[in-house]
Amino acid sequence: MADTQSVTILPLTAEAFADYGDVLNAKDAPDVMINQGLCGRHHDRAQMICDGGRLGVSVFDAVPRDLPYQLDLMERHPLGSQCFMPMTEHPFLVIVADDDNGKPGRPKAFMVPPHTGVNIHRNVWHGVLTPLFSPGLFTVIDRVEGDGNNLEEHWISPPYIITE
Fold it and tell me: How does DSSP classify residue 71?
């Protein structure tokens, strides 16, 4: 793979990820206490968008990947955002890219820490769901019904190699 390019994984912060989506966690104090003061509500942490159609909640079971990871496919969803909430305590990888004339630009890779999810904004290029540990279980909230094509894929050649 002499033509591959390397991308180094970055720590995930709300500021670094803001152009691509929302970071979802409960690290700050709750916005309000509910349920007789026994539950902290961290309110309205993601902008879920759905142009027409309907949002749904699904469970994905993805095969864990190893590092270094070969990135040869990115996708985007022009009609709705896509939220990934891990159902385990393990970190996972999220890869995003700016649009470059209808295709992904140079990707950025972020390590999503345990107990944290991400909501990828509508029309943002991103890699496939990339758990690093088994099981790769995630709750996914995205547009599941509606008119129009909500999936664009772009194969990358030569691939990028994502490294620690």
Answer: E
pLDDT tens, residue by residue, 56-79: 999 999 999 999 999 999 999 999
Helix (H) or strand (E) holding 16: helix 14-17
In the CATH hierarchy, which top-level class contains the domain 5-163? mainly beta
- Please state, as a whole number, how many other Cβ atoms lie within 10 Å of the Cβ of residue 20: 21
Q: Is the pTM of this model over 0.85?
A: yes
- Residue 66: partners with Cβ closer than 8 Å, 6 or more residues away: 132
Which residues does 155 contact at the CB level (< 8 Å), separation at least 6?
72, 73
With tokens 């142009």, the residue in question is: 51
Answer for the pair 108, 10: CB distance below 8 angstroms, yes or no: yes
Q: Which two tokens stand for residue 91?
A: 């970190």
pLDDT at 4: 78
Region of 106 on the Ramachandran plot (φ > 0 left; ψ -120 to 50 alpha; else beta): beta
Residue with tokens 């994502």: 162
